[in-house]
Specification:
The complex is a heterodimer of chains A (190) and B (375). With 190 residues, chain A is an all-alpha fold. Helices cover 84% and strands 0% of the residues of chain A. In chain A, helix 1 (2-22) packs antiparallel against helix 6 (98-131), helix 2 (24-39) packs antiparallel against helix 4 (57-81) and helix 6 (98-131) runs antiparallel to helix 8 (153-185). Chain B starts with 11 loop residues before the first strand and ends with a helix. The longest helix of chain B is centred in the middle third of the chain and has 18 residues, at 179-196. Classes of the chains: A mainly alpha (190), B alpha/beta (375). The interface between A and B is medium-sized, with 23 and 24 residues.
Chain lengths: 190, 375
């Protein structure tokens, strides 16, 4: 469930980021719109989805995707826009086409930024997946909700700690990947 | 996309009535300039004089408001701009190596897009690294941030040469380097220039660099071209006070006729001497370490000939000793007239000559350094 949500969020987020890069006029309204969605409390968003999707995994996955699009799309867009102009001009001067500059220069150099966005999305997704337990999404959220409704601290602790440990591990892995990308692709010269 | 070769060699570049304005301010005002094939033309002027704008109009990074530029009588505005740029090498002060690519990928980027196979790219990159005096095996897979400023600039030059462009545009390529490194790279560049034999347009604000490298110098001031000519023209017939101030005409040419070779030669240090039985590979390594361009081959105490780094590269892995590949050098005696020595070096096209008395090497006579000492 977690990975399905993340997978679609990354694909849609990257796609929207590149789309906005190609149509810069739309960037500000679209990102602001996504920002507004982001301000919805996640439980409210889940409840709003229920009439359309019923209970189960689907509303949770959709909510995860909706929440994760913003950090990913925003970072893709910012990453692509903020590549050092000197390098872009060099690319142009040695005879690269617009498209080649995007593929060979802008995109690789935006990777650390994009990884940063995905890392934020991982943390969001983790939280919502857990919350999804209320609406029958299964996963570790389910025993957590059971523990809460039965007022059984032992169940709450065990599943809560597991959620915490998982979140730290996933964020750690994402962090390592981001750091490696930064080392490999950062524009800083020694 | 793959692009055709637009021109094999440059016969001439014709710049006519080029004007470029930003708002109300002229960046370039009605500029006319002819560049002949094979020459190195220097565009010199202070900042804001329009020299860089002019350069960038040649590969269409900037479009002029009016006027035209023709290369070999082809108007460049009729050409595909990407194809045009792939036929013109471009080197800038900021170098602009892509930080996420190795030296090989940086140099080989355009060839890769043009669809060369990987082996051919590697071979070409190795060849270019030798030309810019970097050992291929130790530099080819490094990233730009693992290189010093001077090394990065060499890679920048190699990248500009990768498509064998008949024309090279250089915008203050040595401007960001410290003075010693700059001098060294200028000297190497002169050698490279000889071996690649291309038309080069070179922007600088340093008059010594202009005199050292340029065949012809075009002086720009306040977005206008003031005067074009050889260094001698500019010194002897400056058109106005801007030119004479720039070239410091009054200070130059101190009675060269009375000077002898020994007054102008550079001393020979021990490190230049190599034994004729040394292996070429080892000598190359030692020359790189000592940072010298040529060595004098001796057998015991007698002079045998000279070798240069450039000649050692191809045989560095073979079991060959210096005696097998050494060359004759131009030789003067220390009492020869400096003027006639200069003329003879110019005639033979050599880059330096040895100064010897009674079979013993005393010094080297390098025309570029001699000129610099005079001015």
């Amino acid at each position: 469930m977690f990975f399905t949500a993340l997978f679609f969020a990354v694909i849609i987020g990257v796609f929207i980021g590149i789309f906005l890069y190609n149509r810069k006029m739309l960037a500000s309204p679209v990102l602001n719109g996504l920002n507004i969605i982001e301000t919805f409390p996640d439980i409210a968003l889940l409840i709003l989805l229920l009439p359309f999707t019923g209970i189960g995994e689907i509303p949770t996955v959709i909510a995860c995707i909706i929440y994760s699009i913003l950090p990913i799309a925003r970072n893709v867009y910012t990453g692509l826009i903020n590549v050092d102009t000197g390098l872009l001009q060099t690319g142009e001067a040695i005879g690269l086409e617009e498209k080649e500059i995007l593929h060979k220069i802008r995109f690789p150099l935006a990777l650390p930024m994009i990884a940063g966005g995905i890392r934020i999305a991982i943390v969001f997704t983790m939280g919502i997946v857990t919350l999804g337990g209320i609406f029958g999404a299964g996963g570790l959220g389910a025993p957590l909700q059971t523990g809460i409704s039965l007022i059984r601290p032992d169940i709450i602790y065990v599943s809560g700690i597991w959620v915490g440990v998982l979140a730290v591990i996933l964020d750690g892995i994402a962090g390592v990947i981001e750091k490696n990308l930064k080392r490999r692709y950062s524009t800083w010269q020694l | 996309m793959t692009s055709n070769r637009l021109f094999e060699k440059i016969d001439n570049i014709e710049i006519r009535n080029i004007t470029k304005k930003y708002g109300d301010i002229y960046a370039v005002d009605d500029l006319n300039l002819d560049i002949e094939g094979g020459e190195l033309l220097i565009l010199i002027g202070g900042s804001g004089s329009g020299k860089t704008t002019t350069l960038r109009m040649i590969n269409r990074l900037i479009t002029p408001d009016s006027g035209h530029i023709k290369i070999n009588r082809l108007d460049i505005s009729d050409l595909n701009e990407v194809a045009l740029r792939r036929n013109i090498g471009y080197v800038i002060q900021q170098i602009g190596l892509f930080p996420h690519m190795t030296v090989r990928d940086n140099i080989g980027l355009v060839p890769k897009i043009e669809g060369w196979d990987s082996e051919k790219i590697t071979k070409k990159v190795e060849e270019l690294l030798e030309i810019v005096d970097l050992l291929p095996e130790s530099y080819i897979s490094r990233f730009p941030k693992e290189l010093s400023g001077g090394q990065q600039q060499r890679i920048g030059l190699a990248r500009a040469l990768v498509m064998d462009p008949p024309l090279l545009l250089m915008d203050e390529p040595f401007g960001a380097l410290d003075p010693i490194l700059r001098k060294q790279l200028q000297e190497e560049f002169l050698e490279i220039k000889k071996s690649i034999g291309r038309t080069i347009v070179f922007v600088t604000h340093d008059i010594n660099e202009a005199f050292k490298l340029g065949d012809k110098i075009a002086i720009m001031h306040d977005s206008k071209l003031i005067q074009t000519g050889t260094p001698e023209d500019l010194i002897l017939n400056p058109k106005n006070s801007i030119v004479s101030n720039l070239v410091e005409a009054d200070k130059k040419f101190r009675h060269i006729e009375t000077l002898k070779v020994k007054d102008l030669m550079s001393p020979l240090l021990r490190k230049y001497f190599y034994d004729s039985s040394s292996l070429c590979g080892e000598v190359l390594e030692s020359m790189m370490k000592l940072d010298i361009k040529m060595g004098i081959v001796m057998e015991k105490d007698s002079y045998q000939g000279i070798v240069t780094r450039r000649e050692l590269y191809p045989v560095r892995k073979d079991n060959v000793v210096l005696a097998d590949i050494l060359n004759e050098s131009l030789i003067f005696s220390s009492e020869d007239s400096a003027m006639s020595a200069l003329e003879e070096i110019k005639k033979t096209g050599a880059s330096f000559a040895l100064v010897m008395d009674n079979g013993k090497p005393l010094g080297i006579f390098v025309p570029d350094e001699v000129m610099l000492r005079l001015i």
